[in-house]
Amino acid sequence: MKKILHIDSSPRISLDSISKQLSQKIVNILSEKYDVEVIYKDLHKEKIPFIDNDWVNVAYKKTPRTDKEKKVLECFEVQSFIDADFMVMGSPMYDFNIPSILKNYIEHLYISGITLDYKYKSLVNPKKIYIASSAGWNYKGKEVEKDFEGMFRKAFEFLRLKDIFF
Predict the structure, then answer these.
(1) Residue-level pLDDT, tens digit, the chain, 166 residues
(2) Based on C-alpha coordinates, what's the Rg of the chain?
(3) Distance of alpha carbon 73 from alpha carbon 79, whole angstroms
(4) Which of 2, 20, 76, 109 is 20 to 30 A from 82, alpha carbon to alpha carbon?
(5) Distance from first CA to last CA of the chain, Å, rounded?
Protein backbone atom coordinates (compact mmCIF):
# COMPACT_ATOMS: atom_id res chain seq x y z
CA MET A 1 0.00 0.00 0.00
CA LYS A 2 1.29 3.46 -0.95
CA LYS A 3 0.96 6.41 1.39
CA ILE A 4 -0.09 9.86 0.22
CA LEU A 5 0.50 12.88 2.43
CA HIS A 6 -2.04 15.45 1.23
CA ILE A 7 -1.37 19.02 2.46
CA ASP A 8 -3.66 22.00 1.81
CA SER A 9 -2.61 25.53 2.66
CA SER A 10 -5.52 27.61 1.39
CA PRO A 11 -7.43 29.45 4.14
CA ARG A 12 -10.69 28.84 2.29
CA ILE A 13 -12.84 26.42 4.28
CA SER A 14 -14.66 24.77 1.40
CA LEU A 15 -13.70 23.51 -2.00
CA ASP A 16 -14.17 27.07 -3.31
CA SER A 17 -10.38 27.01 -3.24
CA ILE A 18 -8.91 26.21 -6.64
CA SER A 19 -5.70 24.83 -5.11
CA LYS A 20 -7.76 22.50 -2.88
CA GLN A 21 -9.75 21.30 -5.90
CA LEU A 22 -6.55 20.66 -7.86
CA SER A 23 -4.76 18.87 -5.03
CA GLN A 24 -7.81 16.64 -4.46
CA LYS A 25 -7.87 15.81 -8.17
CA ILE A 26 -4.22 14.68 -8.00
CA VAL A 27 -5.00 12.52 -4.94
CA ASN A 28 -7.94 10.99 -6.83
CA ILE A 29 -5.73 10.16 -9.83
CA LEU A 30 -3.09 8.54 -7.61
CA SER A 31 -5.84 6.64 -5.76
CA GLU A 32 -7.10 5.17 -9.03
CA LYS A 33 -3.59 4.04 -9.98
CA TYR A 34 -2.43 2.62 -6.61
CA ASP A 35 -3.82 1.07 -3.46
CA VAL A 36 -3.36 4.06 -1.12
CA GLU A 37 -3.73 5.37 2.38
CA VAL A 38 -4.25 9.14 2.45
CA ILE A 39 -3.12 11.29 5.36
CA TYR A 40 -4.79 14.69 5.01
CA LYS A 41 -3.61 17.87 6.70
CA ASP A 42 -5.33 21.23 6.34
CA LEU A 43 -2.63 23.53 7.68
CA HIS A 44 -5.20 26.07 8.87
CA LYS A 45 -6.78 23.40 11.08
CA GLU A 46 -3.49 21.78 12.22
CA LYS A 47 -2.36 24.92 14.06
CA ILE A 48 1.36 24.17 13.78
CA PRO A 49 3.16 26.79 15.85
CA PHE A 50 5.60 29.04 14.07
CA ILE A 51 9.25 28.25 14.65
CA ASP A 52 10.70 29.83 17.76
CA ASN A 53 14.00 29.76 19.65
CA ASP A 54 13.16 26.56 21.57
CA TRP A 55 12.29 24.68 18.38
CA VAL A 56 15.47 25.81 16.58
CA ASN A 57 17.67 24.80 19.52
CA VAL A 58 16.10 21.33 19.62
CA ALA A 59 15.68 20.73 15.86
CA TYR A 60 19.30 21.47 15.02
CA LYS A 61 20.83 19.87 18.09
CA LYS A 62 23.71 17.55 17.24
CA THR A 63 23.49 15.42 20.38
CA PRO A 64 20.69 13.14 21.65
CA ARG A 65 17.56 14.94 22.82
CA THR A 66 16.12 14.77 26.33
CA ASP A 67 12.46 13.80 26.82
CA LYS A 68 11.65 17.46 27.47
CA GLU A 69 13.32 18.46 24.20
CA LYS A 70 11.47 15.75 22.27
CA LYS A 71 8.17 17.28 23.45
CA VAL A 72 9.10 20.53 21.68
CA LEU A 73 9.08 18.62 18.38
CA GLU A 74 5.85 16.73 19.09
CA CYS A 75 3.70 19.70 18.05
CA PHE A 76 4.71 18.83 14.51
CA GLU A 77 4.15 15.24 13.48
CA VAL A 78 6.93 14.68 10.91
CA GLN A 79 6.53 10.89 10.65
CA SER A 80 3.71 11.19 8.09
CA PHE A 81 6.12 13.09 5.82
CA ILE A 82 8.87 10.51 6.30
CA ASP A 83 6.52 7.57 5.63
CA ALA A 84 4.83 9.06 2.55
CA ASP A 85 5.48 7.68 -0.91
CA PHE A 86 3.76 10.69 -2.46
CA MET A 87 3.24 14.22 -1.20
CA VAL A 88 0.46 16.33 -2.71
CA MET A 89 0.41 19.99 -1.74
CA GLY A 90 -2.28 22.52 -2.55
CA SER A 91 -0.83 26.03 -2.55
CA PRO A 92 -2.31 29.30 -3.65
CA MET A 93 0.13 32.02 -4.70
CA TYR A 94 -0.13 35.10 -2.49
CA ASP A 95 1.79 38.20 -3.48
CA PHE A 96 4.17 36.13 -5.64
CA ASN A 97 4.92 33.77 -2.77
CA ILE A 98 3.73 30.63 -0.99
CA PRO A 99 1.45 31.11 2.02
CA SER A 100 3.36 31.68 5.26
CA ILE A 101 1.58 28.73 6.87
CA LEU A 102 2.98 26.42 4.16
CA LYS A 103 6.47 27.89 4.45
CA ASN A 104 6.25 27.22 8.20
CA TYR A 105 5.24 23.60 7.52
CA ILE A 106 8.17 23.08 5.14
CA GLU A 107 10.62 24.63 7.62
CA HIS A 108 9.48 22.11 10.23
CA LEU A 109 10.68 19.28 7.96
CA TYR A 110 14.36 20.01 8.65
CA ILE A 111 15.22 18.19 11.89
CA SER A 112 18.70 16.93 12.70
CA GLY A 113 18.78 13.21 13.39
CA ILE A 114 15.28 12.72 11.94
CA THR A 115 15.13 14.11 8.39
CA LEU A 116 18.77 15.24 8.22
CA ASP A 117 21.89 13.61 9.58
CA TYR A 118 24.16 15.64 11.81
CA LYS A 119 26.11 16.85 8.77
CA TYR A 120 22.83 18.09 7.21
CA LYS A 121 22.50 15.34 4.61
CA SER A 122 19.03 14.01 3.92
CA LEU A 123 17.72 10.89 5.70
CA VAL A 124 14.42 11.00 3.78
CA ASN A 125 13.58 8.28 1.27
CA PRO A 126 12.80 9.53 -2.25
CA LYS A 127 9.18 10.42 -2.92
CA LYS A 128 7.22 12.15 -5.66
CA ILE A 129 5.91 15.59 -4.79
CA TYR A 130 2.98 17.14 -6.63
CA ILE A 131 2.31 20.86 -6.18
CA ALA A 132 -1.20 22.01 -7.11
CA SER A 133 -0.98 25.78 -7.29
CA SER A 134 -3.38 28.54 -8.16
CA ALA A 135 -3.21 32.29 -8.53
CA GLY A 136 -5.64 35.11 -9.15
CA TRP A 137 -3.69 36.11 -12.25
CA ASN A 138 -2.12 34.29 -15.21
CA TYR A 139 1.62 34.06 -14.52
CA LYS A 140 2.24 31.16 -16.91
CA GLY A 141 5.69 31.46 -18.47
CA LYS A 142 6.56 34.59 -16.51
CA GLU A 143 9.47 35.03 -14.11
CA VAL A 144 7.05 35.00 -11.15
CA GLU A 145 6.02 31.43 -11.98
CA LYS A 146 9.66 30.32 -12.11
CA ASP A 147 10.38 31.96 -8.75
CA PHE A 148 7.31 30.34 -7.16
CA GLU A 149 8.27 26.89 -8.42
CA GLY A 150 11.90 27.53 -7.52
CA MET A 151 11.01 28.02 -3.86
CA PHE A 152 9.51 24.53 -3.70
CA ARG A 153 12.38 22.99 -5.65
CA LYS A 154 15.06 24.46 -3.39
CA ALA A 155 13.22 23.51 -0.21
CA PHE A 156 12.76 19.87 -1.23
CA GLU A 157 15.99 19.36 -3.13
CA PHE A 158 17.82 20.11 0.13
CA LEU A 159 16.15 16.93 1.41
CA ARG A 160 17.28 15.08 -1.75
CA LEU A 161 13.74 15.12 -3.14
CA LYS A 162 13.90 15.92 -6.84
CA ASP A 163 10.75 14.37 -8.34
CA ILE A 164 8.66 17.55 -8.08
CA PHE A 165 5.75 18.15 -10.43
CA PHE A 166 3.64 21.29 -10.92
Answers:
(1) 999 999 999 988 777 899 999 999 999 999 999 999 999 999 999 888 899 998 999 998 888 899 988 888 877 789 999 999 999 999 998 877 889 999 999 999 999 989 998 888 899 999 999 999 988 766 666 676 678 888 899 999 999 999 999 9
(2) 16
(3) 11
(4) 20
(5) 24
